[in-house]
Amino acid sequence: xxxxxxxxxxxxxxxxxxxxxxxxxxxxxxxxxxxxxxxxxxxxxxxxxxxxxxxxxxxxxxxxxxxxxxxxxxxxxxxxxxxxxxxxxxxxxxxxxxxxxxxxxxxxxxxxxxxxxxxxxxxxxxxxxxxxxxxxxxxxxxxxxxxxxxxxxxxxxxxxxxxxxxxxxxxxxxxxxxxxxxxxxxxxxxxxxxxxxxxxxxxxxxxxxxxxxxxxxxxxxxxxxxxxxxxxxxxxxxxxxxxxxxxxxxxxxxxxxxxxxxxxxxxxxxxxxxxxxxxxxxxxxxxxxxxxxxxxxxxxxxxxxxxxxxxxxxxxxxxxxxxxxxxxxxxxxxxxxxxxxxxxxxxxxxxxxxxxxxx
Length: 359
Known about the structure:
Blueprint: H1 2-14, E1 29-34, H2 43-59, E2 63-68, H3 75-86, E3 91-94, H4 100-109, E4 114-118, E5 127-132, H5 135-148, E6 153-158, H6 163-177, E7 184-189, H7 196-208, E8 213-216, H8 222-230, E9 233-238, E10 249-255, H9 258-270, E11 277-280, E12 287-289, H10 298-313, E13 323-324, E14 330-332, H11 340-344
Parallel strand pairs: 1-2, 1-3, 3-4, 4-5, 5-11, 6-7, 6-8, 8-9, 9-10
Antiparallel strand pairs: 10-12, 13-14
C-alpha cells in the first residue's frame, strides 16, 4: 500500500500536478524622481521622464518608479525627497541644480538609500552626481547660428546664473564665432527654468534688439514659437521641439538619460553601486542632436557634422584656446584645453557675449 502511494505521488509529480515549493520574487527596487518642471512634452523634465519610462521598459518588474513634478528648488525639495524615502524608494534621482543642498542633507540622514543629483558638485558615501556635457550641443548649435545669422547678432534666453548655464552661453557663442568671427550674443536672464510667459517676453525683446537666431537654457518652446512668428530661427533644448515651430527650429541639443538610469539601477540591484561623478556627452550617447532643418545650407551642415564627429570621437573640446574673456584677456592660450574644474565653476563670459552675469 505504501509502495503504491509512493508510485502515485511520483506519477503526479512527473505530470506536474504537484505544486513546487512556493517561491517569493524579490521586491522591486523603488526608484523616485524629483522634477523641477512639468513632464509636459518638451524640455529638461520631459527628457528625464522619457528616460524613467525607458528604465521601466528595460528592467520591467525589477523596478517600480514614481516621480514628483513641479518641485520648487529650496526648502520644499527636502520635504519631497524625505517623502520619497518614507515611501520606500531606495534609489532617488533629484534632477535640478537647486536640489543639491536638500539632497545632500537627506542623504546624510538616510544611509540605506542611494541618491543621485543632476548637475551638482556635492557627493557622499550614498550620494553621487551626474550631468551631460550639453555644452557640446550648444557649440554645435552655435555653428549653425553663426552660418544662418545675417545680423551677426544672436540671442540667448538664460535661466539662472549657474556654471552650467554660463557654459552653454559661452559654448554657443564660441561655436558661432568659429564660423563667423563677427558674432555677438545678447543674453536675457529670466530667473526660471520654466516660465513660458517670461521666455516669450525675453525672446520678443531679443528679436527687437536685432537677434535673428536664438538659443535658450529654459524648458518651454516659447522661444521657438516667437522665432517662427517673427521669421527668425531658434533651437530646441534638452529635447526635440521641432513640432512647435517647424520653420524656425534648426536643430536641438537633446539629453538621453536612459542609459545612465538603467545602468545605475542595475548596479544598485546588484549591490555594486559606488559613489561617482558622472559626465556624458556625444561620445557616450548622453547628448544627441536632432535632425537639421532643410533650410540650413550645405556648407553649414558640413561644418556642423565635422565638429559633431570630432566631439563624438573625443578629438575636440569646445573650450580649447585661444579663448578670451569679455575684456579681451586670454583665458586659455592656443591649444590649451580648459580644465574640468574650470568648466564646473565657470563664472565669466567669453569675448563677444554682451552684458554682465547677474550676482
